[in-house]
Amino acid sequence: MKLELLEQRNLLAFDFELLADINDSLAGSSPGEITQVGDAIFFTATTAQSGRELWTTDGTMAGTRQVSDIRPGTRGGDPVELTNVDGVLYFTANDGINGDEIWTSDGTESGTRMVHEIAPGDNFRRPRFLTNHDGTLYFSATDDVAGHELWKTDGTSAGTTQVLDINPGSANSYPLWMTSIGGELFFIADDGVHGQELWTSDGTASGTFLVQDINPGLSDALSASSYPVSYYYPPLVDVNGTLFFAADDGVHGYELWSSDGTVAGTALVQDIQLGSGSSRPTQLTNAGGSLFFTADDDVNGRELWTSDGTSAGTALVKDIRTGSQNTTIFELASIGSTVYFTAGDDSGRYELWKSDGTTAGTAMLTDDSTSSFGTVPQRQTNVNGLLYFVTFEQELWTSDGTVAGTSLLKEIGPSGNGYVEELANIGGTLFFAAGSIRQETELWSSDGTEAGTNQVADIQVGTNGSYPSDFTEVSGSIYFVARSGDTGDDLWVSDGTIAGTQSLASTGVSRIENITNVNGTVFFSASDSVNGEELWKSDGTAAGTVLVKDISIGSGRSEPEDFVNVAGTLFFTADDDAHGRELWKSDGTEAGTVLVRDIRPGSFLDSSEPRELTEFNGELYFRANDGISGAEVWKSDGTEAGTVQVFDIEPGNYGSGPDDFVNVDGKLYFSANSSGLGVGDEVFAIDGTTGDLLVLDIRPGSSGSFPGALTAIEGLLFFNANDGTTGNELWRIDAATGSGSLVADINPGPEDSYPRDFTEVNGTLFFEASTDAEGRELWSTDGTSAGTSLVADLRQGPDSSFPGELSNVGGALFFKAFNDELGNQFWRVDESGSAPELVVSSNFDIIQGDLLFAFENRVFATLKTEDHGVELFIGTDTDEDDQISEAITLSQGSTLGTIKTILGGETDVDLYRFEADQGEVFDIDVDRSGGELDSILSVYASDGNLLDISDDDVGPAPEFSELESYLRFTAPSTGTFSLR
């Protein structure tokens, strides 16, 4: 007998099967960047539902909540550099539309917004070094025109401006380590003439200038690469209104300097290592008006020093590790005029020390002789005069500055299996992130007592999952990345069965990205403990998963990116440390993996930074910057001679900044800007037949429409753009005629709808868009204004369901969306375009759905369930021609078991069609899993006559209930029957 599943109405049932429970370890939100702003405490945390986002807490579980889902979906907005500017929170984040930009928040969802789009489009050029100076936020950023320069903002879009183009043109001055002292802002920058030197600014262009050319000419006086770079120990430090820093004047090596912001007041404090040698002062720390730092005088090795700003007052504090051997000193923290630090003495153990600046007043506070490493204190933090720190065994300790008063505060995890990080003093209370092998990493607080040290909130609850991602189909198999509790990110392959799902590369390999199919060979980037992040390949077996080439020799990393297959050759970008990031290609062999051309000769800052690699007319087209024409369109046939610039759209060294390359019927479309042509950021195209350059000027003038999300669908280019009147809305271009037009003003008036995630299903374009009335929901269009409409408001009112992962599966649209009752779940719109149906599993209770990957009539999905966390499942579309592709076959007298369904209405629900031979006997039990209606099971002949009906009083004890249905049926003849 065969049973075939027919249409199940009301809710769409999928047979989801767990392919592999890859990660069964505990989850955690990993709180970080804990920052106080007024009475509010902000931090970042990660959840499976939202990724890494902004959170706030008042120190209680009830008062801990996510502020805003900046980037809807699981990837998260990744807010960093949380900065308090006179009671206003600023940070950088990526909403998935505008790239990395400056954001602000007042602690509410409506009050969390992007301040200004500095670099247009979905860029990855994050502003850095956010600094409060006299109530204004200063930072380093690039707008794709002037390079990385000094910017400031007052929290408004109009008030966000570049202070000065220090290194004129598209070159970068890279302002670093902004430090506010009095009314002056000090920082390090390179104007292209004097090298990296000390600069100051009062916030105006005229008030921004080089303090002194300490190392004359192009040589760097304050090279960021010449000392350890750390947010904990910035190289510019304020001590009583005087700036201290380490610099090299070309004569004395790297030594201690000070400045009051004038040429005359900028001078060498002391040549600690006499002559041209460098003492390299680091970890500069202000303790009660005295400067502490570490330095090497070439006699005593690297030790603790102090200075009052004069040569006579600059001296070695104590030779902790006697003789010329270096003392490893780190984690300097001050309480009053005392500095606390970790140091290793002649015993080789690392312990907690303190010093008042004298030899006699420098002493060890901990001494763990049972360990060869010592206590190894880390993360020293002052809270109300009490020092908190974390030991080598990842436990939380405190010290009052005495040996007797230095002890374990609370054991987070037994036997060294805990971990404590991100310590922060917030209003006299310690907040920190902690977890253990038995407990996920979450937010904790402490008042300095064991009883008062507790978890604030369990943000990411439940069992962890492997979070499968980066699905790529290769010759009938699916490759993906998944997280194992033991080995981190691994490369996996699946043929859609449990037995056929296996790990290909796990031991010592991490950061797997860029999975790309090139004629049956899978290329990807990965990092191991020997070679750093490099180019790898796989043939689908563990033995055939190997490193292709160590491009950046040794433990350095070339970070291959932007993989694309062009006529069977892999093109990508990489940095070999000699040429900077340039264009490479590979045939899968070490010898055949080579640099195509050094477009911008030099290294690091001189990279051409190729990106947007796209196959067009059998060649590679991409964006690159040769240092002369700026970022423009290039092409390559894989040879050095055949790698050339196609057009100089914006003459000069600024470049047109081409982005979003898309091939539509023989035309290469992209966004770019050209003041020379009198247009801002608009849609350009290269005609593959004539070679002509075309442009659609949607917003005439220099402002530009900033087109984004360019997507090719059946000879049409769909994208979002802003014409200056209707806001950011849906547009289209017909590639055959070149004509472009606004499809619909979805959010009427000047407000934006930001349409994106364009997906075609049976001639209909589905996408997500926002309106003031419905929030961000699912929309569809046939390419006309009249045919553009809201599909469904899945989260009623102005709140958003944030549809995502739109996928065409067998002629139906699958997507995930959020509502308050169900959380993130999968939905489907069938061929008729009717209202979305909730996709449910006949095997698992789905807590939430995350990622979708469609392959033939199957769906690979990451689902979160109570038992498995977020893992990889496979589902078979049961609605193809009203039947599943594989029928269920039963032998005579067998029991089908439980068919789990949800009955929500009073009409008949077709369940199965089956074939049976005369005399075959079978048992069927239907389990009611939702609703309160009685379910009735009936069998019909092919002519529609009722043959049998379930008996509510009969069923297999003790599971059977009167709301379930049980039927024993004997086929009266050979034929086809329907089960309802």
TrEMBL record:
Alphabetized Gene3D superfamilies for the sequence: 2.60.120.380
Domain of life assignment: Bacteria
Record-linked InterPro entries: ELWxxDGT_rpt (IPR030916), Peptidase_C_arc/bac (IPR007280), Quinoprotein_ADH-like_sf (IPR011047)
Peptidase C-terminal archaeal/bacterial domain residues: 908-980
Protein name (database record): Peptidase C-terminal archaeal/bacterial domain-containing protein
Organism: Rubripirellula amarantea
